[in-house]
Amino acid sequence: MAEQTNQSGASNGADPSATTAGPSVPAQLEALQNRVTAAEKARDEYLELAQRTKADFENYQKRQQRDLAAERRFAQTPLAKDLLPVIDNLERALAAARQAGDNGALVQGVALVQSQVVDILRRHGITRMDPQGQPVNYDLHEAVMQRPSAQHPSGTVVEVFEPGYMIHDRVLRPARVAVSTTGA
Q1: Which of 24, 25, 74, 171 has a 20 to 30 Å separation from 96 between CA atoms?
Q2: Which is more confidently placed, 93 or 2?
Q3: What Å distances lie between residue 6 and 1, 12, 22, 48, 173, CA to CA?
């Protein structure tokens, strides 16, 4: 009988202990397929991460270009702010000379210098605001005084103490103004 067991167990020439110890072929295929699926999932995650990183970097570059352009556009702001009191003083000197009735060469020279400085600022995008008679806009004007007026509607600029200036689309210095109120 021992021979029969040997013959039945080894009838095809394979070792019976080898077939029971290792995984079957379908199990090996399933394990391999699971590894491939996991690798594909990891690949997809890394691809998505790379695409997001690329998009973030492109957005960063665009933002940097915008910031650099804005910096270049408004680079002269500190110089312009320093020049505004000089322009104000030139205008005050001209007003005082005109009030005194002086129209000599010195007054004409001061007027020429003042207009040259204003033209230079204008070429660099700096413009003067003239709010006289307009409704007050607190983004552009600094109301330093209220004045009762029967001729103007309430909230109208009736006097400009210090002119305001814009640099491109930003306020460089708000205009200091007196605003009308109702009642006399």
Answers
A1: 171
A2: 93
A3: 9, 11, 21, 59, 106
Supply the pTM of this predicted model: 0.67
Across-strand partners of 166? Answer: 127, 171
Here the tokens at position 181 are: 């109120």
DSSP string, the chain: -HHHHHHHHTTTS--HHHHHHSPPHHHHHHHHHHHHHHHHHHHHHHHHHHHHHHHHHHHHHHHHHHHHHHHHHTTTHHHHHHHHHHHHHHHHHHHHHHHTT--SHHHHHHHHHHHHHHHHHHHTTEEEE--TTSBP-TTTEEEEEEEE-SSS-TTBEEEEEE-EEEETTEEEEPEEEEEEES--
Q: Is the pLDDT of residue 37 over 70?
A: yes
Q: Please calculate the CA angle 108-111-113 and round it to the nearest 5 degrees.
A: 110
The span from the CA of 85 to the CA of 116, in Å, is 15
Of 17-21, 42-46, 125-129, 151-155, the range with the lowest mean pLDDT is: 17-21
